[in-house]
Prior knowledge:
Organism: Deinococcus rubellus
Largest sheet: 2 strands, antiparallel
Order of helices and strands: HEEH
Number of strands: 2
Protein name: Diguanylate cyclase
Oligomer: single chain
Amino acid sequence: MTRLVQHLQTTFADLRYRDIPLRISVGQAISTPQMTQAAELIEQASRDRYRMKYRMEQR
């Protein structure tokens, strides 16, 4: 999935709206038997998205 995220970020790197640069942010998650609600999957994807964002900012 990381390769897909990198591809999307590269593809949209020059995306602008009225001279304002836009960025995309992508998270991923895999459902497990322990997850009992959809909200848990969404929360996991959100955490992953922030982790990826932090890593990108550290480069």
